[in-house]
Amino acid sequence: MSSTRTQVKYGSAGLFVGPTPATGQHFAGGNNGTNSVVQIHRVQSTSDSFDVPLENVNQFGNTAAIDKVSNTAPTPTLDFTYYPTNGINEYRLGFPIDGETSIASGILDTTNDEKNYFQLYTPEGVDAAGDTARANHRVVGLGNGFVSSFDISASVGGYMEANASIEGSNYVVHANSSGNNIPAVNLEDGSEIDTWQYAIPLQTSGESSMPTVIKKGDITIEGLPGADLLGVKLNSAHLQSFNVSVPFGRDALERLGSDFVFARPVQTPIDASVSLDFNVADLATGTLANIFNNCGSTKFDFTIKAAPCKGGSSSDEMAIVVKGAYFENQTTSLDIGSPRNGSVNFQVPIGAANDTSNGIFLSGSYTP
Question: Which of 237, 272, 309, 362 is least surrounded by Cβ atoms within 10 Å, i.e. has the fewest?
């Protein structure tokens, strides 16, 4: 088969992620070896970018710059979206799915943070899922990758969808899917890690334990406030969409003696946001003055549950548990031809691994 490609389409693509740390062992060789590179399922889109930041070097006597020098380490990025199912992808990205441990646990203590990401491309016209030929594969790798943002959303007319953004320190393109050095670099000097190699596993269309997708009829939200909010009883409103967004802003730490970012710790404190869009069904009475003057906090716990079809029946596959959500704002509107609709927003402080009262907690039926 010719190695020339005229285009690359989604059927020939796949997304994979390696273990933490990014500089560690990914594949123990031999036919019976252990491969720590795993697939991200139900991917809908990927986007990557990198630049080489240049700064002018000018001096008296020369109008044009005498040189352009890279004085800041490059930060390649990868953004991707996928359909959540039973927590398998979230677990592989480094988030706990036991429903009791903060989503930021492994990131804050760095036990499940820095990873390598791999985009696989099979020959033109060949589905990546099930391709055992392994010939003429291409791999785009992002080394030393850290999650910088993560959100999950769903709306009427669409499926539940997750979005993740990754910041890294290296970007590589390999001509085959095995036998290559991992894309991570030594952050002290940017040198290649030649100790470990990787192998992309056989891509599949999913695992037997996974539902196909989570649609609007599979989603319920339990514990929403009723009379505790002013203007709208959320527990009786007709919800149209939700969005849970967790920013993991990174501090790019640099030092003399190295051109590279030697660490990307997450910025704290972390405030997640939860937004709900709805059509109004009933109104809650009260005054804003009382909310403003209230000595206590307007704070709530609620759970977004997903029970999609799997194996001929519906079952609880995934839940997003929101604890300690502070009511932030509300907007409603009405016009001719449309029902009264609106949105409400909450801020959610993210706790550490031992904080079970504040934050976003994911629960999934997936068993590692």
Answer: 309
Which CATH architecture does the domain made up of 216-364 adopt?
Roll (2.30)
Closest listed residue to residue 306, CA positions, set 85, 115, 140, 132: 85
**In this structure, what token pair is assigned to residue 368?**
């590692």
Q: Please report which confidence band the pLDDT of residue 261 belongs to, taking 50, 70 and 90 as the band edges.
A: confident
- DSSP secondary structure of 14-52: EEEE-PSSTTS--B--STT--B--EEEPSEEEEEEE---
Residues whose CB falls within 8 Å of the CB of residue 65, separated by 6 or more in sequence, listed in order: 56, 57, 58
How far from 98 is each of 16, 87, 292, 331, CA to CA, in Å?
Answer: 22, 10, 36, 34
Residue 313 β-bridge partners: 310
Q: What is the dihedral of CA 19, 22, 23, 27, to 10 degrees?
A: 30
What's CA 270's distance to the chain center, in Å? 15
10-50+63-199 and 216-364: identical CATH topology: yes
Asked whether residue 91 carries a pLDDT value surpassing 70, the answer given is yes
| CATH number for the domain running over 10-50+63-199 | 2.30.110
The tokens describing 81, both together, are 């979206």
Instruction: Compute the 3-state secondary structure of the chain and give helix, strand, coil in percent, each to the nearest 5.
Output: 5, 45, 50
Distance CA 166, CA 189 (A): 21
Q: Look up residue 301 and give its amino acid.
A: D
Residue 1 pLDDT level (bands cut at 50, 70, 90): very low
Cβ atoms of 363 and 110 within 8 Å: the answer is: no
* Cα–Cα distance measured from residue 121 to residue 128, given in angstroms and rounded to the nearest whole number: 7
pLDDT-derived band of residue 83, with 50, 70 and 90 as boundaries? Answer: very high
Query: What separation in angstroms does the CA of 343 have from each of 340, 362, 368?
Result: 11, 23, 37
Q: CA torsion angle for 5, 78, 103, 14 (degrees, to 10)? A: 0
Q: Where are the domains of the chain?
A: 10-50+63-199, 216-364
